[in-house]
Structures are given as C-alpha cells and as structure tokens.
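Format notes (please read before filing issues)

Several people have asked whether sequences and structure tokens are stored in separate files. They are not. Every record keeps both together, in the order shown below: the sequence lines, then the token lines. Line labels are part of the format and must not be stripped during preprocessing.
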Amino acid sequence: MSENVYTSESVPTAPADRGRTTIADGVVEKIAGLAARDVVGVHAMGSGLSRTFGAVRDRVPGGSRSVSRGVKAEVGEVQTALDLEIVVDYGVAIADVARSVRENVIAAVERMTGLEVVEVNIAVTDVKLPDEEEDEPEPRLQ
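Then the structure lines:
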C-alpha cells in the first residue's frame, strides 16, 4: 500500500481558495438600499436634491429607478462602511426606524457579501407629512 506524503508546498488547495473575489461599492449600495426600503417608516431614500434628480432620471426612456439612491458605501477586502440618507414618515419613532434600518442593512449586506459591516451611519434628511404632495410627480401618461 502506498502512502501519500504532502509537504506544505505540495498540499492541494481547496477550490474555494483558488482565486479572489471582489465586490464593487455599487453592489453593496444596492443591497443596502433595498434592505433600508424594506423597513416600515422609511418613506424614501436620499436628500431632496438627489430625489429630484432621481425623479427626472427615472422618466428618461430606458432609465430605471435607482435602488442605491441615498446610499454610499466604502468597501474594503473584508469590511465595509455605509452612509444612508433617509426620509421617514411623520409619526414614527425616528430612533426605532434608524435602529431597524441599521439591523436590516447589516444583516442583508453581511449575509449576501460575507463582508463585515463596521458601521452604518444614518442621516434623516426629511419627514414626510401626511398632507404633503409627493416630490416625484405622477407620470403624465396613464
């Protein structure tokens, strides 16, 4: 019977260890944007100016809704940090909404990317009042 003897130089590596995976900032921003929008009490993402430009961009033929609006990510090799701008609905407890957004974003990003989320900074840029009209007008054609 022959016995296989491996030295540290000749040990075969597992397929998962043969290469490197990089994740773009935009990928993390999309994941975080979708996760933040899922939280009850979040009316919209982004500052007033970014929402206005986004509304115009959404109406351009072939344009699509930006799920990463209001999200900025810095992605390293094993960690990421996120900054979010949110608009909350009037009447919600802002601290509770921020806590839920942070928890939802961290869970989604870590589960999908394997990156460690070191911080999620949340800026509440506006409150949507019940009687306010939408910043993004309805399309003219129905």
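For reference, the curators noted about this record: Confidence is low (pLDDT under 50) at residues 137-142. The first strand starts at residue 42 and ends at 45.
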